[in-house]
Amino acid sequence: MPRYFFDVMDSTQSVPDEAGLDCRDLGEACRQAHALIAEAMSGPESTRIDWCAWRVEVRDEARGLVFTVPFLPR
Amino acid sequence: MSVTEEEVPADRVVEALEILLRAPPFGRSPKLARFLRFVVEEELAGRGATVKAYAIATQALGRGSDFDPSLDPSVRVEAGRLRRALDEVYGQHPDGLAIRITVPVGGYRPRFEILEAPPAPVAEATPDVADASEAAERSHAAVAGFTPRGQAAIIALLAGILLVLCIDLGLTLSARMAEPGPAPRGVASRGR
Hints:
Structural class of chain B: mainly alpha
Largest interface: A-B, 25 and 30 residues
Number of strands of chain B: 3
Strand content of chain B: 5-15%
Oligomer: heterodimer
Number of strands of chain A: 5
Mean pLDDT of chain B: 80
Low-confidence stretches of chain B: 139-144, 183-192
Strand order of the largest sheet of chain B: 1-3-2
Distance between the termini of chain B: 82 Å
Mean pLDDT of chain A: 94
Number of helices of chain B: 8
Distance between the termini of chain A: 31 Å
Order of helices and strands of chain B: EHHHHHEEHHH
Shape of chain B: rod-shaped
Structural class of chain A: alpha+beta
Helix content of chain B: 55-70%
Order of helices and strands of chain A: EEEHEE
Low-confidence stretches of chain A: none
Number of helices of chain A: 1
Helix content of chain A: 10-25%
Largest sheet of chain B: 3 strands, antiparallel
Largest sheet of chain A: 5 strands, antiparallel
């Protein structure tokens, strides 16, 4: 299975993905990106984070950008 | 495999932690390895309920003391990646991993559960010494090709044949002994 990396970022900060995740296809990679977003937004502590500015950049094993998923739909 | 809810000894949790940290996802990401080790060790030290994003960021992820969890989602994001890394490792059923460690969504406190291995197939069981004689008897019966009831019927049949032969022999001998002299009427008539 191909491995995809899910880098999380806004305009100033970045949380790069070191481990990556094996996904059967792009559909599963998209589902994993949405799951990552949902969990990040439902953390245990309250935040003042502007989620509109955040996105997940899904990259292939060569670290090429495959697609981007915004935290909140525009 | 299934899980049980009983309390898990700390040494077994540590053993499982070390196996997990040698697995590929944690080898690729030292950050996730430090995250997992930190929350597990805090839980075992009795401080699991008080672990917050700030402590994880500053003590496990190398962030500075100015880390602000209300503005920086990095601990939340890494927690999501940690859950997927754990799922990936447990999905591969690594040898010796008898404890399941999870970090439920909505917190950073790990849970520990004992994994129960599925029962071994009967065909693979090796008979011990105590079963050797029984196994030998079964083997003997299998070689003979008869069940115990079948064997009893054959023995009864053979005994019946032997009885008939004995009676016939007895009658023949008594008839021959009677030939030189005049045979009593009753015996002669029985011999014919």
